[in-house]
User: Fold this.
Amino acid sequence: MMADMEPGDRSPVPTAPTAPTAPASPTAPADRRVADIDVVLPVRNEEATLERSVTELRRYLDTDFPFRAVITIADNGSTDRTPQIGAALADRVPGVRMLRIDEPGRGRALRAAWTASDSPVVAYMDADLSTGLDALLPLVAPLLSGHSDVAIGTRLARGAHVVRGPRREVISRGYNLIVRSVLHNRFSDAQCGFKAARRDVARELVPLVEDDGWFFDTELLVLAERNGFRIHEVPVDWVDDPRSSVHVTRTALDDLRGIARLVRRLASGGGRTSGRPTDRRPVSNRELARFAGVGVVSTLVYLALFVGLQPVLGTYLANAVALVLCTLGNTVVHARFTFGVRGTFRVRDEVVGVTAVALVSIALTSIALAVVAALAPGNVWAQVLGVSVACAVAAFLRFVVLRAWIFRSGRRHDAVPGTSSSPATAP
Assistant:
């Protein structure tokens, strides 16, 4: 187990075994106290900037950061002088240590460093310090207090300030849009190189993550959300480093393959931790009663709209308009009253789910109206009876969709005041 350092300590340079996920374990003095935060810098071929970055970060931690922190340089497969520079820094600078992993991969470096750390909170940031260091305290404070389980920096929330070229901006926003559309996550920025987690949470989640490269971040966050962990978002100041060695196009393609793999894994029921609350809660009698109460009121409103609009719009169009209006209102009320979701209701985040609910209801009631038209043409009461039965069937399907998809956990996504982060369960 790799121990944390205090200023004044010196660490030997461990060398990891050839297994990609097995970190080295240097021997630590018995009187060495554990740091509150372990800040990992995953590096690969960073000889030009490593010393400057470590010196700047260590200075900030010593002068402006209120908690004890150690810096772990996690080299993963460098072929330049990065390992030698890191070893010299660990030997010369108090509160800095070095971890060497033979194979490349940012995820592999984080897996080794985080699972070997003894600090209560483990974090990481890009080695070029693209993210403003003033965001580090807001990132880790909710984890130290126990308010949240995972914390991420976001470049896409209100309050963030980002400087980067248009190509990277388009790729980043496009990637996060794809992730949100396919995986239905609520966090806003999957790949900002500025994240932290409680150590116990990291040790539960990291073994579930299969990717060892750049997709590690996205997979970790999706699994955290699916397993009911609380995610805290912090808007950051972020300046793109034009000298970055990251191959954007190749990384984007690898990430798309990672998304496809993760979709298949989640669809088969994988990616679950043991002994943790998940988004599959048992149905309570109170929840059923509230859903039924809202459903009765919603059905009465629908019937009134349907009967009132029919002379003007015709049978089928009146049915569709009444159902769309009631579905939107019904979903908002269910979010607050039935499923206990807190936060801002944003239909655009789950427009597919809400639209599916409305289309199913329209299809069922339209079939009922067609049957009534064939059996009892012109009979308004027969129409009311037919659509009432269809609405009852649609209500059951609506309950399943709302509970299992749109309002999965009834828990909101934590974010600092003033950000535009969406609730974890509110559409």
Q: What stands out?
A: The mean pLDDT is 78.
